[in-house]
Amino acid sequence: MEKELGKILIIDDDEDVLFAAKMLLKKHAQEVIIEKNPKKIPFLMNNDTYDVILLDMNFSKDITSGKEGFYWLDQILERDPKAVVILITAFGDVEMAVKALKEGATDFVLKPWQNEKLLATLTSAVRLKRSYKEVDQLKIAKKQLEEEINQPFKDIIGESEAIKNVFRIIDKVAQTDANILILGENGTGKELISRAIYMKSMRRDNVFVGVDMGAITETLFESELFGHKKGSFTDAKDDRKGRFEIANKGTLFLDEIGNLSLPLQSKLLTVLQNRQVTPIGSNKTIDVDIRLICATNMPLYDMVEDSSFRQDLLYRINTVEIRLPSLRERLEDIPLLADHFIKIYSKKYRKGGKKISSNATKKLQKYHWPGNIRELQHAIERAVIMSDENTLVPEDFFFLNHKNEDQNLSLEETFNLDEVEKNIIQKAIDRNQGNISQAAKELGLTRASLYRRLEKHGL
């Protein structure tokens, strides 16, 4: 055995036992940590992980009953239910051994031990620990792969030159490990593109982990991405792996990355540079090997100019950029997309084999689609539900008329660019009831950029 035993923690109040065990095991283990005081177990468990824990059953308060050993066994297993614990005692018997195994111990040895027997017991225990880790990894991978398989609308629909250009870029970059930045308006399919890159990559047999950065609060950012140890904060009732650690060997997709505040950008940059994470409540760093894909609908280059997005982080995430065209830039794809969604929702709502008329298709192609493919998808779903006929006609999309009228009215009011910008900003602020952050997001601006425009137009 050459360093086969991994990291071992030994807890015994007899210094001679600790010294003898360390001298024996240091030749076979990567690291041997010894501790005389069992009260330090919570601290040790919170700050590190161990392949095997050797725990004395009897300490000074209670010489022979083993009660202290059982108490500390419970404390260890409460913090790590999969901990591999071997109990040691000089006063063992069959009854106590059976109880120890029932309480969750992996094995039981008597002092003084035979060196060969102790090494054999530890070797078996380490293999058991590794099997636990492999099972956990397989469960996580299985869950993630099942979620991938069950993702709706996996296929990217389109034959326009704009979308074909996106396909060409995907074919070039997918087999590399280059960091990808996907830029595009809301509803253009940024997550679908990220999954297409993943499915064509060398990491497709490992997990794909998606994170909506816009939905994570600042207080939960580190916990969600980097993980935490039990007890590290009020609601930390169990150890939790962060998304970076779960995505190890796989692909990590960070959506809406433009929404991160500068302090969070700094923390993310440090992790991306070092390829290591440190869970909250732990001093132990964990190496991570990921393929990073980021996406945003926000103007990151403008944000760099007004110092609301770090330039060094932008350089880190955009080895290759993919800009997704809006739906109004690929109107020729609308018939294919409409047929695709009609088939899905006809089946979902048991509406038979519905089709769409050529006039209805022309109406869809004349619409501006500010919500892009997602808005088209919802429009088709609504029409399929409400229509009583087998063929969808222009009247089934009556709700689009009002939106087109609003757009035409705003265009007819003036062609002065400053006035148009002023009107659009005012409408965005009104629609969001004065919420500058939401209005800026809807306009595709940073708050700083919007404030400058408000000052410019005297709003």
Write a structural description:
- There is one protein chain.
- This protein is α/β, with parallel strands linked by helices.
- Helix content is 48%, strand content 13%.
- Helix 2 (41-47) runs parallel beside helix 3 (67-79).
- Residues 408-412 have low confidence and may be disordered.
- It holds the Pfam family AAA_lid_14.
- InterPro entries: AAA+_ATPase, AAA_lid_NorR, CheY-like_superfamily, Homeodomain-like_sf, HTH_Fis, P-loop_NTPase, Sig_transdc_resp-reg_receiver, Sigma_54_int.
- This is Sigma-54 dependent transcriptional regulator.
- Residues 7-126 form the Response regulatory domain.
Give descriptors for this structure:
transcription regulation, 19 helices, five-stranded parallel beta sheet, 16 strands
